[in-house]
Design a protein that fits this description.
Length: 437
């Protein structure tokens, strides 16, 4: 009897919640809203879940619409994967942070507690001078003493000016573009320091690289769809919401009435939908600027690189900063993802020319004999609005758009840059703002 009474009470207090957009933020919002006992409807304009982080079929294989990495500090993402039945231990290749170049130089952290691992890695990695090591230790120590905080208007380049040129170009710039997808001269030092704090100093394994063994759709979108449907969530794919209209005690979305709405679509779509309801919020969302990412997939049979992820030196005509050996982590053998972050110049040059430049870079960057034959260009994926430009003092839209109307996405105000973790945390926070049923 008590169980029936509790169930009735939950039914009476459950809200009808519309989640508009089924990328990683929308998935997180829908899962956590359902777990709080609410009735959820999920609307997605594409034909599948995942947004900018999903697998796409190409020439008989499924590759990602852009190479992504996770790190051990992505606690919200790893938790969400487990909630929907996806096992991170099986789906992600895990190794200590390694930012190593083709010649073996760079930084490779050993396992262990973060501070000790960082110090041992710095002194144990080849290619650094005493001045490089000393200035890096001095700066990171000063950042730690300040709680990894700095003035909002400071750029990463300004923050790191005391470092040697070698440390800036071989360590800071790759880290910055990997984490913020924004060049160091234009990137927010405050956000960069927050990422460093959580990745390098928040706990054992927090800086570990987690590389997808399977297409991104298998990490979250696919398992989440199965979980949500089993939980009775209505998923409307191929459905672009045209309008959100106020209604008595709630909102009219598509053909239904909802008590609350979470806008988990792109900032551009959220601005369009919210403009009649919250023009100031919509203007802030529409004002965001973006950085593209281009992923060039090359194929060459019989090749295994020394590292699953290798850092590359960039210069004119050599645009990629990283290469991932997908075969080394469980993907198709002989397939390599070359990533061009902050790729405005690559997009302007044209994807075909950038792919050819990346192919030439691949041949030049590795020791002779690495490639038994010239790789072929398998596929080029371009996300022209991959991430917001994470500039100093950037004003990001708030989670609350209007009473009963919320926003979730990696662009929403928060401590993280545009990452999978930022998206998942934002969706979770939006759902947690709802009262539990």
């Amino acid at each position: 009897m008590d169980r029936d009474a509790n169930q009735l009470a939950r039914t009476l207090t459950a809200l009808r919640v519309a989640v508009v957009g089924a990328g990683w933020a929308g998935i997180a919002a829908a899962v956590h809203a359902r777990r709080r006992g609410h009735v959820v409807g999920l609307f997605e304009m594409a034909g599948e879940l995942g947004g900018r982080a999903r697998g796409v079929p190409v020439k008989g294989l499924v590759v990602d619409n852009g190479q992504h990495i996770l790190i051990g500090a992505y606690s919200a993402t790893l938790e969400l994967m487990r909630l929907v039945g996806a096992a991170p231990e099986a789906l992600l290749f895990r190794q200590p942070l390694s930012l190593v170049y083709p010649d073996g130089s760079g930084l490779r952290l050993p396992p262990g507690r973060p501070v000790g691992a960082f110090i041992r890695g710095l002194f144990g990695s080849p290619g650094w001078t005493a001045a490089d090591r000393l200035t890096l230790l001095r700066c990171t120590g000063a950042w730690a003493l300040r709680g990894f905080r700095c003035a909002a208007g400071l750029s990463v380049a300004e923050l790191c000016a005391p470092l040697t040129a070698a440390v800036r170009t071989r360590l800071i710039e790759p880290l910055c573009v990997a984490a913020l997808n924004t060049p160091a001269a234009q990137a927010s030092a405050a956000v960069f320091l927050r990422v460093l704090r959580d990745a390098l100093f928040s706990g054992e394994g927090s800086s570990d690289l987690l590389l997808p063994r399977r297409p991104l759709s298998d990490l979250l979108p696919g398992p989440a769809r199965t979980w949500l449907e089993a939980q009775g969530v209505r998923i409307a794919l191929g459905h672009r919401v045209q309008e959100i209209a106020p209604a008595p005690r709630g909102w009219r979305v598509a053909d239904g009435h909802f008590d609350r709405v979470i806008l988990a679509c792109t900032a551009k779509e959220a601005a369009r939908l919210s403009a009649p309801l919250a023009p100031a919020w919509a203007a802030a969302a529409a004002a965001l600027r973006y950085e593209p990412i281009v992923t060039v997939y090359l194929h060459c049979t019989g090749v295994r690189l020394e590292q699953p992820m290798t850092v590359l030196r960039t210069r004119p005509g050599q645009p990629a900063q990283f290469v991932f050996d997908l075969g080394a982590i469980g993907g198709p053998p002989g397939l390599f993802a070359f990533v061009i972050s902050g790729a405005a110049e690559a997009v302007a040059a044209g994807l075909a020319d950038s792919a050819r430049a990346t192919l030439a870079q691949a041949m030049a960057a590795f020791p002779a004999g690495t490639w038994p034959s010239v790789p072929t260009i398998f596929h080029v994926a371009a996300e022209k609005r991959a991430t917001f430009s994470c500039a100093p003092s950037l004003s990001r839209p708030a989670m609350v758009v209007a009473p009963g109307l919320f926003a979730a996405g990696d662009y929403v105000d928060g401590p993280y840059p545009a990452t999978l973790e930022g998206a998942v945390r934002s969706g979770r926070e939006a759902a947690w703002s709802l009262p539990a049923a």
